[in-house]
Amino acid sequence: MLDKPDRELHLVIDRMALEAEIDALALEHEGERDALRLAVVALLKTTLREGRERIKAWFHEDRLGTVCAQRLSWLEDELIRATYAYVTRYVYTTHNPTSGERMAIIAVGGYGRGTLAPGSDIDLLFLLPAKQTAWGESVTEAILYVLWDLGQKVGHATRSIDDCLRLARTDMTIRTTLLEARPILGDMSLAGDLAARFDKEIVQSTAAEFVAAKLAERDERIVKTGNSRYRVEPNVKEGKGGLRDLNTLYWIAKYVYRVRDAAALVDAGLFTRREYRQFVLAEDFLWATRCAIHFLAGRPDDRLTFDLQQDIATLLGYADRGGLRGVERFMKHYFLVAKDVGDLTAIVCAALEERQQKPRARLDRFIAPFRRAQRQALTGTKDFVIDTGRLNVADDKAFARDPVNLIRLFHLADLHSLALHPVAMRLVTQSLKLITAALRDNTEANRLFLEILTSRNAPETVLRRMNEAGVLGRFIPDFGKVVAMMQFNMYHRYTVDEHLLRSVGELADIDRNVGSNEHPLVNEIMPTIQNRTALYVATFLHDIAKGRPEDHSIAGARIARRLGPRLGLTPAETDTVSWLVEQHLVMSMTAQSRDLSDRKTIETFAGTVQTLERLKLLLILTVADIRAVGPGVWNGWKGQLLRSLFWETELVLAGGHSNADRRASVRHSQEELRAALTDWSPEEIEAYVGRHYPPYWLKVDLPTRLRHARFIRSVTARGESLGTEVDTDAFRGVTELTVLAPDHPRLLSVIAGACAAAGANIVDAQINTTTDGLALDTIFVSREFPEDADELRRAGRIAQGMEQALSGAIRLPEAVAKRGAGKTRHRAFQVAPDVVVDNEWSHRHTVVEVSGLDRPGLLYDLTTAISQLNLNIASAHIATFGEKAVDVFYVTDLTGAKITSPVRQHSIRDNLLAVFGKKEGKGK
Description:
Largest sheet: 8 strands, antiparallel
Number of strands: 16
Distance between the termini: 52 Å
InterPro entries: ACT-like_dom_sf (IPR045865), ACT_dom (IPR002912), HD/PDEase_dom (IPR003607), HD_domain (IPR006674), NT_sf (IPR043519), PII_UdlTrfase/GS_AdlTrfase (IPR013546), Polymerase_NTP_transf_dom (IPR002934), UTase/UR (IPR010043)
CATH superfamily of the largest domain: Beta Polymerase, domain 2
Number of helices: 41
Shape: globular
Oligomer: single chain
CATH architecture of the largest domain: 2-Layer Sandwich
Cofactor: Mg(2+)
Keywords: Hydrolase, Magnesium, Multifunctional enzyme, Nucleotidyltransferase, Repeat, Transferase
Strand order of the largest sheet: 9-10-12-11-15-16-14-13
Protein name: Bifunctional uridylyltransferase/uridylyl-removing enzyme
EC number: 2.7.7.59, 3.1.4.-
Strand content: 5-15%
Number of domains: 6
């Protein structure tokens, strides 16, 4: 706890003066018990508010996290003392207290540690003697009512010492709270008896049990919060690498080593002085972050969300520097601290192993109990041994004798599928200075590293251990620059280094034929590639230049050209790696934002890849990259788009797609339909075939053509020209809504508005026009429900909304605005809007690519603006990357011609850019 002189804490609260004011109020309201209580509560409420404001102001000045939490705890102590004085002097007075009229008020839990966040609960134990009178219960109740009237959130228990010990024996949570019990006021002998008996009767004989329970509890908590310390919206308190992890380490160390404060862990031999300083710095940073969250949010919330990250970075003094924004520098610091917490966890676990305080059967995956007798030699090396089933160093000079051993350790772990002993890992972190330029240029070290990276065992796991130990960033300095680096956007869910390691893991899964039901094509072609090593290296390097001022793909390709020879790649392999890194985004962007039925799209992409081998490599890398972005980013729809692009490009590379081929394909598609419509008359079939233009027959598969034919026939049979049909596709994760309506320029805008009003997220739109003036549009929206029955009901409501909008039964602007009201998720981000108008990307259409900050109703606003420009939309392709929308429209003028006039092109840009400049809320 803080000493009172800290920052003149009497400026926050002077308890003696406060109690004097209470005494004065008692004189003023003598005999008016209720009036006195109201006056005291008002005084304490003002004191609490002013004290918090002063502590908040100090925090803004000095940014000291632990000190801020201690000041808030000290303020709470003083308020409780003043409240106790008021209650015992003027509510339940005892002039000659008996032995049963004693009480100790004890802070427990987080409050017991002497730290409080601005929005933390207050956990109190009212400790009473075994033989008690009604006085204790009455005083407790009166104090709690005052604290509740102050707006405090109080967790409390009223118990005797025997009650506490009895419950602690069976309830690990209560045992933990008592471990940090801190007397605030009252009978100190009572509190002392509890501490002594708790230590003797509970702690002394149950260390192993406590350790097992706390680590199991930590496992469960981490799974709930995402199972990674590198999530870009971490939970500062409960997440992996957060405050609760530090608390757990301290609880365990305090229980096992029987110390009263963290500093004593140095003398106990658990931490070195450097490691203890690491503990203190991590705790202070995490407390600063948590306090900042509570102050800025105005409520108890421990999630470091995007909308708070920028403001917290500014509050804590992080400025733009070195190509990184201030918020990215702050988050990089956060993830480095989370990594430090992980290192400290390993140190504590290693020490527990030495003391044999961890039950092997329960926690073997962490660390097995240490027994020197279980060490055995590892064949082929004198520097490493197998120690209780884990790979360990033979002695503490292993790395000094031969620095290559810093790489060989991980190579042997992968080769023999051995877990790494924490003693070896701790020695690794203490030997990082041995990773010099000489080691980085060492042929054997690079050979071992390349074998780790391309291993058929578990390369992701081993590379992650290398990264956590600090080896990977030092051995590959360019990788070290992206360690703990986050990109301030909603698309990437992990730091750059974590994303790269997960990408390697996804590639290894493909290599082992895992997940073939989710991405069947890449599993099929993986065994056929000739450049497996190049593919692994490219996957490891594809984002390695993130955070630099220049395009990361180009900079990354340059790094690959430099690094390839060092790793022992041939010139051909190095060239392939460099090309893959430079082009690693092109396949994804083409598949998601271009018309794959447009011949120019395929020809352009084929010209980029040039060979079938590069096409295969790029597809596999693209799938691994997308799947490693984060949960829910990959879906069957993206897989289908990539497969379509692959197959179409493969045909072009094989020499297909001539005009003659296309005419033959149209005839073949028409004949397929004729053969399938066995219940139609020849006249009906010919009339129907004549309703579609050639592009329709080229881009629509037979099952869809059959469905369209029967759908149009049923609408026509009803004598109508407006109809809708819905279908689900669980594999692709989308729902199809097919609309038949009289064609007009605003049709897609109305459909987009109806989807926006229903909260449906459009991912693609296929637009077909019939020769008799109807539009046959298929809209693909993201699936929301896992069960088809639920999804079909939802799709039916969307379709009904479309029909109502097309018939004029509902006003779309109001419906879209109502749906988008209050949606502020993206306001923390800035995306500069951009509009590109290009006539080279398609033979028949002008392509308009629009990118900017996504929001509800954006597609509706864009399509409305396009229709107002008297443009026909032939196809639309909608992609969203977190907060960034990239919408591409293939358009013509009303005569079906491209937009070639510079004046009209300029007008298109201005009008679409104006959509992003609308006042907030308008057009939503």
